[in-house]
Design goal:
There is one protein chain. The chain is of the alpha+beta class. It has one domain: Alpha-Beta Complex (Peptide Deformylase). The protein is 23% helix and 27% strand. The strands form 2 sheets. Strands 1-2-3-6-7-9 form a 6-stranded antiparallel sheet, with helices on both faces. A 3-stranded antiparallel sheet has the order 4-5-8. Strand 6 and strand 7 form a beta hairpin. It is globular and about 45 Å long.
Amino acid sequence: MAVRKTIQIGDPRLKAENLIVKDLGDPKIKRVIKDLKDTMRKNDLIGMAAPQIGENYKLFITQPRKTKARKLSFTDKVRVYINPKVTKFSEKKNMIYEGCGSVLKGNLFGPVERPRELTIQAWGEDGKKFQLQCNGILGRVIQHEYDHLLGIEFTEKIYDYKKLMAREFYIKNIRNSKEQLSASKVTVIKLKDLA
């Protein structure tokens, strides 16, 4: 297991340019992917981007599942997105409280409005290009991690700073709210190989 230190907000590596992965079979890239998986799980997160472990590549992973902070009905496998590009955002938006391992080690949550649904293209861990259309918590975590590749923290998109809260308050009062659960529900997931 290779758990890496999670880079915290303010570190210039979170704002640095992220490089395109040119060789999908590069052993270093395979190690970064493994380290991301191990670090995401160890920190009880549902997604993580390479810059968060100090590796400035266009690469992130997602795995919506039950964690201490998230009580989800939807569980997904680990998905790897290499050189991702969002090709479509829905006009409809929704609000979900987000947290981040790079912001006070995941102990701060705030409301963020984002498009409800998106379509993204990327290369997977197997070296094949794919397209994914989705919504709910999967669409949300993709957008959150994609922002990391653009040097954007979720704190820059908080809808109302007066509603920032500690993790404990979020878990007690927001996590199981009707609004949070409804916005997190995954109803669209269409995966297509592009190879």
